[in-house]
Amino acid sequence: MPILHSQGRVSQLPCLALTGVCFALFGLPTLTFGQTKFVANYDEAKIPEYELPPALVTKSGSVVQSAKQWKQIRRPELIQIFSEQVYGTAPKACSISHELISTKMDAVNGKAIRREVDVTVGEGEASTTMRLLIYTPKNAVKSPAFLGLNFQGNHSVDPDPSISLNQNWMRNRQGTTTDNKANESARGVASSRWPVAMMIDQGFALVTIYYGDIDPDFDDQFENGIHRALRTEAKSIPKKEKWGSIAGWAYGLSRALDYLEMDSMIDGSRVAVFGHSRLGKTSLWAGATDERFKLVISNNSGCGGAAISRRAIGETIGRINTSFPHWFCDNYLQYNENENACPVDQHQLISLIAPRAVYVASATGDQWADPKGEFLACVESDPVYRLLGTDGMGDKAPPQTSPPADQPVAKGTIGYHLRTGKHDVTDFDWMQYLKFANRHLK
Ligand code: GCU
Predict the structure, then answer these.
(1) CATH number where 218 lies
(2) How close is the Cα of 262 to the center of ligand 1, in Å?
């Protein structure tokens, strides 16, 4: 059922006539609009009036009453709208080739085999190569796996000096990069986000890729990375609908899965796609577009990810399109300050993963990503999950209110938690994902 909010409109919406952009921190640009800064609304009472577009009513107005109608009519309709209006349309799957780069037989205290495998997407001069860092439990045959993109290079996941140091363009970070390239101090800096031993101990493989191997994270009018590699294939896509970087990263995840389906140590039919923040937006879109992903995990994904855009609380469509113009397609600009005009909202993105398992996580200190909006998107996708024969968020009906911090609602096919703390990925998050994956992937 659509929810109608009528607490009244925010009287002063921020002006998006951008005159200055100042990148204060990595990923957290401070935008100046004329004399004033963008001021996010954090007051529930000032949420604009909105009505959610229904997941279970087709464009022609028919109520979707069966799994068959969902699969044949509504699901393809929604994929098309999200492609044309939000993330952009990606070319069809293309060929890949792969090459084993290194193997270490005694990684993770001798409990895992660690490999680096190069997967090349496309052919010839324009092709692009991503390096997969793969940990598989020793003595296991065909492990289920987590596949996730990382922000700072595979070398940041583990301090092991034999992991190759990524030399592709990287956003500058104090100490760990020099002139937009990683340096030796970057080794292991993101290891708290990737508890490999915890995964290996529970029989899971981890596959991770530096997201910039697929598409460098800056606005270059889609001239490099995957966009360049598939320029010919993308030629016929209308300009305003051309795929943004999120669609590019998601496409890369699907090509990585093409490879994993051939890998002798991984079970390609039991792969969970995971992502944090912009990469959590990416994991949701990858899971929506590629039904081979059996489980989808979105950590603190916020605006353009799991959070309902119409709430316009924390980060808004206008703000995200201004700070990161390359993430979405150009059609998405129409919805700056105009969320109600968008024919879709993010609960429908989660619905596109149904009936496969999905887990959305928020953090108390991450109001920018609108934890409540992320929770509501799960609740609103519950009817689609139930129509498709699953238990949705569990119990007879989804919870009416957000759960207290650190008390996951994860008995069903849609999992959710609100963790105490900041925008990050922690052991607490992974403990929940592992528990959930043990139920859904084994
Ligand atoms: C910024 C951006 C978010 C994004 C985050 C990240 O904060 O506004 O939308 O999720 O960066 O990816 O780190």
Answers:
(1) 3.40.50.1820
(2) 33
